[in-house]
Design a protein that fits this description.
Shape of chain A: globular
Number of strands of chain B: 0
Oligomer: heterodimer
Order of helices and strands of chain A: HHHHHH
Radius of gyration of chain B: 17 Å
Structural class of chain A: mainly alpha
Helix content of chain A: over 70%
Distance between the termini of chain A: 29 Å
Number of domains of chain A: 1
Shape of chain B: globular
Number of helices of chain B: 8
Structural class of chain B: mainly alpha
Strand content of chain B: under 5%
Radius of gyration of chain A: 21 Å
């Protein structure tokens, strides 16, 4: 406990400040520094948040699967907490992807939603991890629930390549109603690349910060539970 | 292996004497199929046959597999099974095999129902149709058997099994529907090759993963 107390606060003090400043810098880069996109205009600026949120979401799910596999192997509660925290933060960013995507797609593609492979893939991933959270909250007292959830996280990651291949094949056979814009993702101005990279750093810092916050929150919840249990024993 | 065989034998004898699972499953499939037909234009329903086939199969199948595990919980039969000095993987193999057999028989009935009620041409290439059905069946049974072991332990079990399995089944449903479509329209197995490869990969990955991970789910 004392070893944690001496090392953790420094990171926890630096991270929020670093993330805040990085996010302010990212906002400036995205809205002031980066030029307007020629074809799409101002709407394109949502791209910087959308893409980085997608990477943060994938990172979260990847961390969750790794932590879950470790938990199944070693059975240490720390890995389970890390998995829950990573799924929660990953879901936050995944939701952000699914919200920013349609906002961009409506003026550019003329539809809120298309069954583009990447969109389909993202929404399926979202449902898998939404179920993970439902499963966890459905039986919080069950001591086995951590193991069930870990199996789901590992199976979910095994499923990802299959989802990707099948969704590609599926859309490859059906003609796409709305053709993808020719210059999607093409960053023609170096300032756009700078804005993307700065936003990426900001999102990464935010990701790590939120992950630590949730991890600590779960650790404290468990500690509180132990105290309450002991209090109950004493009272009896 | 002999342990798996004995558990499978027990399940099959139980099913043979009661015929509860199969009769319930067949009636449920008929009802889902009828509901589909009422919801669609019956004349054009033949085109939707592959989709109807797999949605019907998945929903009725989930019920049947869940029921198989609930049965074990009566009179503590499940604990008896777990107390047996056998590899837990063998229990998974036996449960999955008995699900494959019961659901496979139900699939044959479903083929007849699709032909009669929707005019689907399941006999365009019978061998190919059976092959597609089998590939879809194995992957489904693997995932559903694994997660039924979780859901029977939960309070909201009726809701949790579909929630757990349906998102993970997306690749299987996509590929099985498309492969069925190819075969029903008279195409050869080779022209459904891409779909069948994904289905076969799905089957292998989740059969092995289920066999390896089942032990994690049944620790008491």
């Amino acid at each position: 406990m004392s070893a944690r107390a001496s090392s953790a606060p420094l990171v926890d003090r630096v991270l929020p400040i670093a993330a805040t400043f990085a996010m302010l810098a990212a906002l400036w880069c995205v809205f002031v520094y980066a030029p307007n996109e020629r074809m799409q205009g101002a709407v394109q600026r949502i791209f910087y948040f959308h893409v980085n949120a997608a990477w943060a979401a994938f990172l979260g799910f990847f961390v969750a699967a790794g932590a879950s596999a470790l938990f199944l192997w070693r059975g240490r509660v720390e890995h389970d907490r890390m998995a829950v925290a990573a799924v929660e933060v990953g879901m936050l960013f995944c939701t952000m992807v699914l919200v920013t995507g349609p906002i961009w797609a409506r003026p550019i593609w003329g539809a809120w939603w298309t069954w583009d492979p990447r969109l389909t893939m993202t929404v399926i991933l979202w449902t898998i991890y939404a179920v993970y959270l439902v499963l966890r909250s459905s039986a919080r007292e069950d001591p086995q629930i951590a193991r069930y959830a870990a199996v789901l996280a590992v199976i979910g990651v095994l499923d990802v390549p299959l989802i990707q291949v099948s969704v590609r094949l599926w859309r490859g056979i059906h003609p796409s109603v709305i053709s993808a814009p020719a210059n999607k993702g093409g960053l023609e101005d170096p300032r756009m690349v700078v804005a993307l990279l700065v936003t990426m750093v900001a999102f990464l810092l935010l990701f790590v910060w939120l992950l630590r916050l949730r991890y600590d929150g779960l650790r404290l919840r468990d500690a509180l539970q132990r105290l309450e249990d002991r209090l109950g024993e004493v009272a009896r | 292996m002999s342990a798996a065989w004995r558990i499978l034998h027990k399940d099959l004898v139980l099913e043979l004497r009661t015929r509860e699972a199969l009769s319930g499953l067949v009636v449920l499939m008929l009802l889902v199929l009828l509901t589909f037909t009422f919801a669609m234009d019956p004349e054009g329903a033949g085109n939707a046959a592959p989709a109807v086939q797999w949605v019907t199969f998945v929903f009725a199948g989930l019920m049947a597999i869940q029921r198989g595990f609930l049965l074990e919980r009566e009179n503590g039969a499940w604990y008896g099974l777990l107390l047996c000095p056998v590899d837990r993987g063998a229990i998974f193999v036996a449960k999955m095999a008995s699900n494959v057999i019961v659901l496979g028989l139900a699939q044959l009935v479903l083929m007849v129902l699709l032909t009669v009620l929707l005019g689907a041409s399941v006999l365009a290439a019978p061998a190919a149709m059976i092959f597609v059905n089998f590939l879809g069946l194995v992957g489904f049974a693997a995932l559903a058997t694994l997660f039924a072991a979780i859901s029977v332990r939960l309070r909201a079990r009726e809701m949790m099994l579909p929630l757990l399995v349906l998102p993970l089944l997306v690749p299987l449903v996509i590929c099985a529907v498309e492969a069925s479509r190819v075969v029903m329209s008279g195409g050869s197995l080779a022209s459904a090759g891409a779909w069948l490869r994904v289905l076969a990969t799905f089957d292998v990955i989740f059969s092995v993963a289920g066999w390896m991970m089942f032990e994690q789910l049944v620790q008491e």
